[in-house]
Amino acid sequence: MTNNRILVSIIMSIVCVTLTSCPEVVSCTEDVRQFERKEVNIIVLNNKSIGREFFVSGIDPRTMKTIAYRDNGGFYIEVRRSLQLGDTLVKNIGENFFEIKKAKSNIRFIKSCDGSNYAPVEIYAQKKLAK
Prior knowledge:
This protein is an alpha+beta fold. The protein has helices at 2-20, 28-36, 75-82, and strands spanning 40-47, 53-59, 66-72, 88-91, 97-101, 105-110, 113-114, 117-118, 122-127.
């Protein structure tokens, strides 16, 4: 009987830790507001993104200093799939999108809500005009 009590105590401890360690759920609107506060301008030299974790490092084209950008979320899966080494990733404060600047085109990934739910990631590609 003592072994059963120990087992039950262990299981209850695991359940309590799991429940209290869950991240706070924010609304779609608040998530987009938080996203709009982010900023990055980076020529990507390393992409160590895995799954929902987004991690790139490279050079800021304005200062030529080494920088890194890290965040997580399902939104970044689409960005990660299109990002190649040498691309420039731009996100300005107040905007709800990332833009990947490539040699021949730009790709924009828009984060938005559909009512209270997340809207699918909107992706727009724009071909650059020949000079």
